[in-house]
Amino acid sequence: MIETDHVAADFGTALSHYRAGRLGPAETACRALLAREPAHRDAVNLLAVLCCRAGRLADGAALARRALAIAPDDLQALELLGDALDALKDHAGAADAFLHAAAQKGCRRFHLKAGASLHHAGRFEEAVEQYRAVLASGEATATDITEYGLVLTALARTETAVAAFQAALKVAPREARTWAYLAEQLALLGRTDEAISAWDVVLALRPGDAGAHYDRARQLHLAGRDEAALGGVDRALLLDPAAERAHGLRSAVLWQLGRFEEAAEAASRALALAPGSPTALTNLGNALKDLGRLDEALTAQQRALSRSATAEQRTTVLVNLGLAHQARGEAAAALAALEQAATLSPDQPWPQFNLALARLRGGDLDLGWLGYGWRWRGSGLAKRLAALGRPVWDGRPLDGRLMLVAEQGVGDEIMFAGLVPALFAAGLDVVIECDRRLAPLFARSFPGVTTVARDELPEAPEGVAAACPIGDLPGLLRPDGRPGPWLAPGHLAADRGHRDALRRRYHDGRPLVGLAWRTSNVRSGRQRSIALDRLWSLIDLPVRLVCLQYGDADALAAEAAAAGVDLVVDREIDQRRDLDAFAAQVAAMDAVLTIDNSTAHLAAALGRPTVVMLPVDADWRWFAGRSDSPWYPTVRLIRQPHPDDWDAVIAQAIEMLTSLPGLAGPAEKPEHVSHAVP
């Protein structure tokens, strides 16, 4: 179109009004011009701008399309259309407009806008290409590189995203937002210490950022550093006392620390801020369960389930609901809830592992052992196996040595080590890794097997062909197919000389019965432990009671005296420091009466007659409804008939002890005092 002087003057008037900020007159002039010259592209573009400035985005987009009908490659109209559509949340349409513009003129601005719109539209691969074009231009800013990293996070290209954020921080090292993105991605990679350090930088730059304090505390919690996490979440709450999620995190942290009353209080505060929150309700249920308030706990979990909207929420709550049923002794309901959780999240270790434990507890060994391997997915054990650089053993014959990798606690190591003789009998050359305190005991008990302390081997020893978490042995060897006990009877051997010397020291003519009544496990200790003063009726037995409880000797002697229990406390035995000496002490007993703790496993593994007192919610290792143990032939189990009903258990334990060979019959009893052996 040939523009006349009159048309040019009219457009100039409209443009002058626009540049002077007189938007109304500018629009009036544009519309007057377009009424006479409807194909005046510049006037259409200017009117599109004016409509967008006035908030009439749909009108602006329509005018931009009108301009493009006149000139399909008009960069101004393409950019106007893209901006308007982005503002209207039509990111796919905006992306197409910006891509068209970038194809005409590959400048940084068009590539950036195309990349951002593609990102918002979920077209991540195309977005990556646009950001790479920006990077290739040599004009990329720190913000551009950060945005590129965000697209990579959407594609779960975590390593590459970390590299992008690190590159952005080289350009702008004080950009707190980028440090936060970096922290999140490092956490996903399991680089926990680096992630926490990145959060430290965020807080150095923005010390008053309550959200950053929360995120750092959450990372500490996930890393198992709950004392530090508690300090962090408390700082977040000082800055933002009404942050419901921070109260929820505080509840989870306190629960992990075994501070159940405070955990329930924090969950209640979260609920006051967000009534019906499934996270707060399930946290409250967990705390109430471990406080023994089982009816309230179940109600809280049921309410949480009814409010859960996402699969992730439902999975978490279903697991906690299953555990609440389990604590009440409702095995079928517990199994049903856990099966639902595992079905809902088939790739998540936590529900699968809890389901496996429930199946094992109920005697479903086929599926139970199959699922037990979920315990080490994504855990420190998985990292340990990866660091060894050996394949995980699948039970087949090996051309080389087999390394058993230590895991879980001392009691677990003792129990699973009972399958080592079966490996040795099958001709396998075995290296067994164990807690340093168990090394002398294992070395004596398993001649021909190489025993090493778990903190001494950063790499696999020479000749190792495969590694196996020691807890995998039952599933691989399937001892349930054998008659009799699963483990070699009395598979541990204490130092005989030390055992005999201790027996002579303690012996006063009465049978020796070792006693342990408490565990320090922060989450299950309340359910499994018995107050010593509830065991006062043991003093009427014709036996001499020897303390097998860990703890400070003076405190234990004082506790026994206050409870009126005649108890020998040997100051020379410290099981926390020297398990080999403790094994000799346990082996010196005629029988052992204990709660479920590592002492139960050690006594049983030494072949001592052992009575284990169990809560309603007994650990899976003791299975359900049994008074014997397939692991250990010398163990007898006594179970609570109802939660916290230890009196019935103790009465049955006394009856069972008196029926053991060598413990029945009268014996002269000295005055009831607590003895501290020097």
TrEMBL record:
Family annotation (PROSITE patterns): TPR
Signal peptide residues on this chain, from the entry's feature table: none
InterPro entries associated with the record: CellSynth/LPSAsmb/PSIAsmb, TPR-like_helical_dom_sf, TPR_rpt
Record's keyword annotation contains Transport: no
Keyword Repeat set for record: yes
SMART domains (UniProt xref): TPR
TPR repeat intervals: 142-175, 315-348
Keywords: Repeat, TPR repeat
Stated name of the protein: Tetratricopeptide repeat-containing glycosyltransferase family protein
Lineage of origin: Bacteria, Pseudomonadati, Pseudomonadota, Alphaproteobacteria, Hyphomicrobiales
